[in-house]
Amino acid sequence: MDPRLEEARTRREQIVAEIVARTGITETQIERLVGTFYARIRDDALLGPIFAARVEDWDTHLKKMCAFWSSVALMSGRYSGQPMQAHLPLPVDGTHFARWLAIFEETANEVCTPAGAAHFMERARRIAESLRMGIAFHRGERI
């Protein structure tokens, strides 16, 4: 293996281990968070219909979301995709993102340590705001 690739892999493993030690977040916990969160989303009167209309294969979607949150929370590099492109066609606005964040925070607080929940929420808020602004900009709305 190329020594630079090996060095990068080793460094990524060190970063992941440091985040796990600091937050208590593990891949198993991410799976639990994602599974619980999306079960609640599916039952939500505001968000459920949007996801029901868009997600055809929930198993595939949940695996993708686990990879996404692993990359976001642990910097694992497991996810490759374009979240903005996936969200642009959705009929969502600030109200939807606020509800999404409320459900995510409730779930993170139940599933994670306080440090883990704070770690997730810091990132979730940034992601929600970025998506909200990107969608509004794409539609020509005032941000």
A few lines on this structure:
77% of the residues lie in helices and 0% in strands.
Description:
This protein is mainly α and 143 residues long. The chain has one domain: Globin-like (Orthogonal Bundle). Helix content is 77%, strand content 0%. It contains 7 helices and no strands. It has helices spanning 3-23, 27-43, 48-54, 58-74, 83-87, 94-111, 114-138. Helix 2 (27-43) packs across helix 6. The mean pLDDT is 95.
SSE diagram, text form:
Layout: H1 3-23, H2 27-43, H3 48-54, H4 58-74, H5 83-87, H6 94-111, H7 114-138
Helix pairs in contact: 2-3, 2-4, 2-6, 6-7
Report the β-strand fraction as a percent range: under 5%
Helix amount: over 70%
Shape designation: globular
Kindly report the oligomeric state of this protein: single chain
CATH architecture: Orthogonal Bundle
Q: Decide which structural class fits the backbone.
A: mainly alpha
Order of helices and strands: HHHHHHH
User: For the report, how would you describe the main beta sheet?
Assistant: none
Helical stretch tally: 7
Q: Rg from C-alpha positions?
A: 16 Å
Mean pLDDT: 95
Q: Would you tell me which CATH topology applies?
A: Globin-like
CATH H level, superfamily name = Globins
Low-confidence stretches: none
The level-1 CATH class: Mainly Alpha
Domains, number: 1
Intertermini distance = 47 Å
Total strands: 0
